[in-house]
Write a structure and sequence with these properties.
Rossmann fold; five-stranded parallel sheet; 7 helices; 40% helix
Length: 142
């Protein structure tokens, strides 16, 4: 973490916690990764509905507007690949969320990226990722 970030809360969030990805996740579970990739690319211009943690993220980011200096940063960490993650970033832009940094793990757990982002808290719907983050010493929750 840089000196300028010393007093900034850095929250890492998974794409499934931020957005409702139940439909595309069902495709992944039923038909596999290639069908999921195709589905996400075919639907990349469709805006995702808000997920379970969306309101929390929105409120935390809105704190920055009332402060003289941004004190909250949200980073996206996702099991998606960069090409399947385009739909997620299109939705981030649609909702006006100030999320500029992301890691796409290409099907692997994204928790190893938490240290590189200087994260203080990791929110995910994937219990195994949360457990791994906790084991690595990060605050994390589903």
């Amino acid at each position: 973490m840089t000196e300028s970030d010393d007093h900034k809360l850095v929250l890492a969030i998974s794409s499934r916690a931020l957005f409702d990805l139940r439909d595309s996740h069902a495709v992944y579970m039923a038909e596999g990764v290639e069908a999921y990739r195709k589905y996400q690319i075919e639907h990349e211009d469709e805006i995702l509905e808000r997920g379970d943690a969306f309101t929390l993220v929105e409120k935390l980011l809105n704190l920055n507007a009332s402060l003289s200096k941004a004190r909250v940063e949200v980073v996206l960490v996702s099991r998606n690949s960069a090409d399947t993650g385009l739909r997620v970033f299109n939705s981030i832009q649609h909702y006006g969320l100030d999320i500029a940094r992301a890691a796409f793990a290409g099907g692997r757990s994204p928790y190893p990226y938490l240290a590189a982002f200087g994260c203080h808290l990791f929110l995910s719907t994937h219990a195994e990722d949360v457990r791994s983050a906790l084991d690595a010493g990060f605050a994390a929750a589903t």
